[in-house]
Design a protein that fits this description.
Number of domains: 2
Structural class: alpha+beta
Number of strands: 3
Strand order of the largest sheet: 1-2-3
Low-confidence stretches: none
CATH class of the largest domain: Alpha Beta
Mean pLDDT: 84
Largest sheet: 3 strands, mixed
Distance between the termini: 36 Å
Shape: elongated
Helix content: 40-55%
């Protein structure tokens, strides 16, 4: 659970705020800011966002609305303040390539001639389907 410990070190007990950031903040904000750290202070929760250089000024005007969206998503008043750290954003994670659907095996495929245990034969044929 290396991911869970990384989220915990950054103060995110619930990683959904980071994982669903685009949905919570909206695509416009998610394009220019990413959650960096969450901490509890005497006046409430403080969310630090990594903001693209120059975006913090724009986001400063959106603080109240952003806090409301986050708190609505979390179902409680967790974030009272938003701070910004200006630095280049991390590149978005590439989407996984869709796997091609396995089609029927041609009758001449060598995997059809396997004469071993039935479970192993099915596994070999499944691999052969992905290969073709």
């Amino acid at each position: 659970m290396a991911g869970a410990s990384a989220f915990a070190r950054a103060g995110f007990r619930d990683p959904s705020l980071v994982l669903r950031w685009k949905e919570i903040a909206g695509p416009e904000v998610a394009r220019i800011a990413q959650p960096l750290k969450y901490s509890e202070g005497p006046s409430g929760g403080i969310l630090t966002l990594r903001a693209a250089p120059g975006a913090a000024l724009f986001l400063g005007h959106e603080k109240r609305a952003l806090c409301e969206r986050i708190n609505t998503y979390l179902g409680r008043a967790a974030v009272n303040q938003v701070k910004f750290s200006q630095s280049p954003l991390l590149p978005p994670q590439p989407k996984p390539k869709p796997q091609k659907s396995a089609g029927p095996l041609p009758p001449s495929d060598p995997s059809r001639r396997f004469e071993g245990p039935e479970g192993l034969a099915r596994a070999i044929q499944a691999l052969a389907k992905r290969r073709s």
